[in-house]
């Protein structure tokens, strides 16, 4: 399939580039899937499981347990925050009221 790129306008050229990049990604995914199948077949042929070779690692997040709280709500000492993730409403309200982060630190 020969495409005369000199006859294409700007939009047509961008469309061609986009389609070529999508096709390149599809080909890469297909190649990776075939390689993965070959690796699993080789491991199985040798009498092992994937976990025996590469361990029981999961691709998801690690659950590292709980994190100690860094901040405490002065109005309600039961409310704490570790400093990770989205700020709790009470923390934002305290900042708006003129408190500083160090004032809320445990």
Automatic annotation (TrEMBL):
GO terms for molecular function: bent DNA binding; DNA-binding transcription repressor activity; minor groove of adenine-thymine-rich DNA binding; transcription cis-regulatory region binding. The keyword DNA-binding applies. Residues 10-37 form a coiled coil. Keywords: Coiled coil, Cytoplasm, DNA-binding. GO terms for cellular component: cytosol; nucleoid; protein-DNA complex. It is found in: Cytoplasm, Nucleoid. Transmembrane segments: none annotated. Residues 58-89 are annotated as: Disordered. Residues 59-106 form the DNA-binding protein H-NS-like C-terminal domain. Belongs to the histone-like protein H-NS family. This is DNA-binding protein H-NS. It comes from Fulvimonas soli.
